[in-house]
Amino acid sequence: MNLTSDNRTAIAPEILEGISRANIGSADAYGADSLTTGLKDKFSEIFEREVWWYPVSTGTAANALCIGQATPSSGATLCHETSHLYAEECGAAELFSGAPMIPIGGEMGKIAIDQLSSVIGNSAIRPTVLSITQPTEFGTVYALDELAALSSMAQDAGLRVHIDGARFSNALVHLDCSPAEATWRCGVDLMAFGATKNGAMCAEAVIIFNPSLVDGIDDNLKRSGHLFSKARFMSAQFAAYLENDLWLKLAANANRMARRLARRLDEFDSMKLAFPVQVNEVFVQMPRMLAQNLHDIGIELEGFAELEIYRFVTSHATTSVQIDDVCNDRIAPIVALFEQVRLS
Amino acid sequence: MNLTSDNRTAIAPEILEGISRANIGSADAYGADSLTTGLKDKFSEIFEREVWWYPVSTGTAANALCIGQATPSSGATLCHETSHLYAEECGAAELFSGAPMIPIGGEMGKIAIDQLSSVIGNSAIRPTVLSITQPTEFGTVYALDELAALSSMAQDAGLRVHIDGARFSNALVHLDCSPAEATWRCGVDLMAFGATKNGAMCAEAVIIFNPSLVDGIDDNLKRSGHLFSKARFMSAQFAAYLENDLWLKLAANANRMARRLARRLDEFDSMKLAFPVQVNEVFVQMPRMLAQNLHDIGIELEGFAELEIYRFVTSHATTSVQIDDVCNDRIAPIVALFEQVRLS
Amino acid sequence: MNLTSDNRTAIAPEILEGISRANIGSADAYGADSLTTGLKDKFSEIFEREVWWYPVSTGTAANALCIGQATPSSGATLCHETSHLYAEECGAAELFSGAPMIPIGGEMGKIAIDQLSSVIGNSAIRPTVLSITQPTEFGTVYALDELAALSSMAQDAGLRVHIDGARFSNALVHLDCSPAEATWRCGVDLMAFGATKNGAMCAEAVIIFNPSLVDGIDDNLKRSGHLFSKARFMSAQFAAYLENDLWLKLAANANRMARRLARRLDEFDSMKLAFPVQVNEVFVQMPRMLAQNLHDIGIELEGFAELEIYRFVTSHATTSVQIDDVCNDRIAPIVALFEQVRLS
Amino acid sequence: MNLTSDNRTAIAPEILEGISRANIGSADAYGADSLTTGLKDKFSEIFEREVWWYPVSTGTAANALCIGQATPSSGATLCHETSHLYAEECGAAELFSGAPMIPIGGEMGKIAIDQLSSVIGNSAIRPTVLSITQPTEFGTVYALDELAALSSMAQDAGLRVHIDGARFSNALVHLDCSPAEATWRCGVDLMAFGATKNGAMCAEAVIIFNPSLVDGIDDNLKRSGHLFSKARFMSAQFAAYLENDLWLKLAANANRMARRLARRLDEFDSMKLAFPVQVNEVFVQMPRMLAQNLHDIGIELEGFAELEIYRFVTSHATTSVQIDDVCNDRIAPIVALFEQVRLS
């Protein structure tokens, strides 16, 4: 088991099996195969409206393609200052759209609505798209009314609304609402719908709700190198992922395991939950030295070292036994030793 | 069987098996896994020198990333006017590098050296990289001395040399030389090394021979959305592909099947080979109406309709029996009917 | 006098005087001054419809800004292979729009309509804008019906139509029609309207006829560094240029001087007019050695050395006396010497 | 007189006279004229080392061209969050370089060195250039040791150092040191050297101290539309500007007038100087209503309305009499009325 990130886990067996099943004879290339075209109906059913979709192989690609569809190069993308889009993707959204990003602050990874209002009112560059990370980089989830309030302000000012949903399934399980309610019914125009972190091999979907944003997407896929010749194998991952609600079951497991892990970690005196645990990420405040000690026995943790906040991530593949074992057998002794040394 | 393109074929069983074998437990993300790091040695061994490599999922991505490493945005990319880079990739190389492309003519898909010389001497924009498609879009292969002559002229003028090797294995089998001889010993700085068309699911490698061109590649992978979190599954395809010379065996089969197909098609009075058959593509000149008749029974052919030249493509998975069957049972009757109608 | 290019000439006295006149006290910046806003009416009157306009300082800027307004980055710009846009501006149109250029051939610098048709029908990238250079790089002028035919084909295929009018005034004098007839009545959406080559210091106007292409232009001016703080001094040049038809008078003089020069040059046995002289450029075919001899006495000529075609350019400031003097006193002796040597 | 911005003022008479003087006969285009080439020596003399220079027409162009020379597209530009580059230029630096900007905080418009250190240490994108606005957007001037400390930290981390010197002459007068000491002797690699705000018509110079950053600049000038055909008229402005230290005399006047104005404004109870007055900008904290009242009588003030901080700008053309008149006759009565109403 690995608690560093859900992007280190294996492929869910059903999804790998889906790839194998698709490996029969030849198929039309570049998404004209029946698996890819058939999934349009499946996604439309799931989202309760006709959508446009295409599978790409990374979350950065899905986000950047969305932003490229949503803004002319003369505009600007607003997003949280800690968002993956802004802080980790090396300017991908800018490369694909030509438009700069403007970071906005806000507690617990959520865009503060008064700061959004201020940026919309004062920016020298015309804001044209708002990107919302759901769940946030801190594992928190925007409630539907928070989402609707941001979207509504954005749309009143003429902005498009994008969701970075690399862990969207985990957020949806937490919200316990329909995919439609969590997206376009709240004013979302298009989204990156992740699967890789939740059990796929390399599969993220660009989903466009607003049909006016579809124009030119085929060309943009090509010129960014994200139009797959053997697209059926990307789609095969989604076919398996969406069948019988596998995606929600996998996410539900990851979330449940995170809550279990959170309860266990919270029992340690030296650890304190930094944020509410709403998806499959547990942010813990602990002394840097303790994090280092865990690292030394192979428990690598990302996070915000300067704040002494560290992140544990569970996944579709995590089991209760694994959680208990890692807590009892690996973490507890290190914590005990750490506390003993500190007290002495 | 499908003769439209080798990008429609299935995954070679060894490669699919390689993906399954890699699906055990967790692994470091973004290429830090042991499969990806280990392949650096394997590629270095194959090319008889230390190389830098990274797997991406499309040929367009591999090409565009190479061009982005090879030229500043103030330069220009020279390439054949029929090259995939110029004619089919929607400006990807320009998006990734910022530098325009300048098309050059030449017979049978090969860059004419006098035209290269003229463009180098007269361009208002400073040419900075020469992209050579090997094999060409017409299924022809640059001989080593042709390659060396182009590279040498380019390098004397300060240009970098890139190979678009989407079907490089097929060219190599034809050349019957070592990978080193076909690349950096001829002055090549970096290349897109294809596997998808030759049996992989979605695997193309960026290979950099010239170490001065590596700088910034990690950032460029990220900002173009081509840095894979679960990179091990990309690498697993290459591990299987390169093991026991599988790549060369698959390519040899495809080339052999193309020659067999060419012999059979050439026997028809209404068909004429348009170019020498050197890799796995057979270009045939035939009346447009005949191509249409073939299309009507499900044999779709790409090509250059205005020249009445059509392309048949064999693959790693094509068998002699398939070739014979398709010629005897499907093509021959249509041709017979066509010729009969024309004569009457 | 200088016959190399009209961009080497001085500022017309009326225009320099216009700059001086504008230099009184302070004025609103970035085009909010009364000179700039007032010129909107003047241009609208000249073009017989409401237009959007803004002054920039180079022809490349005017062209590239137009292309940026006319195409999304997923499209492509079609233009003649000899056009300044394609051959001389180092990819400016691509930088500003993100869209590649596709060169089209055609005699005497004019886009051949069958080649335009072929590119529109066969391009892998969706063509989105047609750029027409009027007059062409060979000093020839599209007749109104030629212009209308190209525009019509372009618009039927959904393309926008742009004119590179660096020497538009010279073309207009030749066509002897109204500015409206030569532009939007022929289907033109937007244009670069030059003044620098015809007497201004540094003044080219972006003129947009199609109001749907105005959106975002202010941001694009800023981000390309072409929004002038002291815009009044750019506009002052246009105010003087347009007053009392100065622009047409200056162009008429340049065209007239070109015809006079052409007649004189054509009398030499060693020289032959290469194209009809329709504006202020005279293309002459002559032996390379003769061109070299002229160069050696200070008559530098650009052109197409490989075709032995050389260009003489007259300007708003050229006089009949200058033409006669340069022909009699400088060119004739050199030609005589050259012919004498050759015959001997 | 206008106190809104120094970009609203007229052309200094010596500079307009310089343009007229240059308007004699023809001259080589694109900077090959003797005025432009001669200024290389003049700038090199002023900066006490060989420099590369070229005149452009806007400050945004000068900055963006510098950034384009200083970073590959895979890097990032660090700059103050209030810098013109980041906050006002609509992403020009990103368009020209391809590299995103990362904003950094710090008091009084100056980059805080600990924040610079933190960004260099933690950025996901590799920082490649540091842009320093001298003077800052708050009219404050980095002392030489502050400048050296920032440059030194940047260079130790492999970054280039750029100065946005739109009002560099005003900063230099304040620092009372040599141009060399204020730039490359403090580790500066290249700069935008402004003249427009200090009396020119439209003239900003790109100055490159570090010869390794010159490569490709000619192409970048062309493709951004900033290579002037009649460059002599841009250079003529600089020739006059630099002759007999005119640039420093004009800046000294502007600074002196700012100090005089500051003293007068500071006497009003309702106004308070917000920052030290070091160049030609006076930032005053006053009630929003008072600023509105001033606006209503034609004294428009930019600034930071949400902080109730407003900016008055003096210029090369401002006189003591004007300052006294505007304070006595226009501002004082409004302030008196405002204070009376408030007290009542």
Strand order, largest beta sheet of chain A: 1-7-6-5-4-2-3
Residue runs with pLDDT of under 50 for 5 or more positions of chain A:
none
**Largest inter-chain interface?**
C-D, 51 and 51 residues
* Helical coverage of chain A, percent range: 40-55%
How many extended strands of chain A? 11
The radius of gyration of chain A is 21 Å
Distance between the termini of chain A: 33 Å
Major sheet attributes of chain A: 7 strands, mixed
Shape of chain A: globular
Instruction: Return the structural class of chain A.
Output: alpha/beta
The number of helices of chain A is 13
Quaternary structure classification: homotetramer
Order of helices and strands of chain A: HHEHEHHEHEHEHEEHHHEEHEEH
What does this structure look like?
Four copies of one chain form a homotetramer. Chain A has 344 residues and is an alpha/beta fold. Chain A is 43% helix and 15% strand. Chain A is built from 13 helices and eleven strands. The first copy, chain A, has helices spanning 13-22, 34-47, 59-70, 84-87, 92-97, 113-122, 144-156, 168-175, 217-223, 232-242, 246-266, 288-296, 320-343, and strands at 52-56, 76-80, 101-104, 127-133, 160-165, 190-194, 204-208, 272-273, 281-285, 302-304, 309-313. In chain A, the strands form two sheets. A seven-stranded mixed sheet of chain A has the order 1-7-6-5-4-2-3, sandwiched between helices. A four-stranded antiparallel sheet of chain A has the order 8-9-11-10. In chain A, strand 5 (160-165), helix 8 and strand 6 (190-194) form a beta-alpha-beta unit. Chain A starts with 12 loop residues before the first helix and ends with a helix. The mean pLDDT of chain A is 95. Chain B binds chain C through residues 73-74, 76, 87-91, 94-95, 98-101, 103, 118, 122, 124-125, 306, and chain C through 73-74, 76, 87-91, 94-95, 98-101, 103, 118, 122, 124-125, 306.
